[in-house]
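Student: I would love a firmer grasp of how sequence relates to backbone shape in proteins. Thank you; the sequence and its tokens follow:
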Amino acid sequence: APSELLHIKGSVLAENGALADPLQRNKGFFTWSDRAYGMELHNSAGKWGLAVFARSESDIRLGHYSANETKQNALSTKMIIQNDGKVGIGTTAPLELLHIKGSVMAENNPIADPLLRNSGFYPWLDRAYGMELHNSAGKWGLAVFARTDSDIRLGHYTGNENSQSAISTKMTIQNDGKIAIGSVSTAPAGYKLFVEQGILAEKVKVAIKTSANWADYVFDKNYQLMPLANLEKYIQQNKHLPGIPSATEVVKEGIDLAEMNAKLLAKVEELTLYILAQEKRSNAQQILISTVNDKLNTLQQQVKQLKKNKLK
């Protein structure tokens, strides 16, 4: 009277001729006395190789033991899947969807000194939660931790694993989203990214919010150029161009690339207008000179003619 698609009452033997000690099922799928449903695989000597059971509260546990087979409490649980989906390895009370208590090792055969996790994800003594990767000699290659103020820091150190204060911070992600790269732990106010000692890039593109942030307004017909005499006086007094920050201001505040490029372009465009205006004045003066020369030539011819007439 099978109750499922496959119903086996009794033991099952899976045998491979090459194995002297085949794996067996001792009692099929059965009920422990303390209301847990279990399955076991063990060798012919009766030593358990694997035990899996589901408790009455729907937790699924995997482990091994060689004690009383009718009592699931004697099981040495190695992994648990709770009914809320949380998985615990090395712990029967996982705090997150995956909770590993103990070390994790990721090994690649060509690497003689594999990376290891020393103590899993754990709290430091100074109330910071961290994760470390290091080699088998115990020298840290990477340390990541979240402080109690919610900052996330990345760096490395070779000090006491129980103190995040010994870490050499290389990057900080603040709880307000700001990022600082370098030995600094706080990005300056008003900025989302701070990089200590600068950035080397093959290409940088700066976004301009609106056309009003660019310098085309200089070519508007109503734009008023500063008279050159006033410009000369301003330069003599301030030692920099109007609208351009002084050296002292730049050292103190730095420069905004987009804003500074727009200001420099405005000065180039103003210089272009000065040159065009000078060209107009020059052309007008040339016309005037030509006109004066023509009149002078005419007068000279008239004078010559008068002299000739007088001699006659």
Q: What stands out?
A: Residues 63 and 134 are 29 Å apart (CA to CA). The two ends are 157 Å apart (CA to CA).
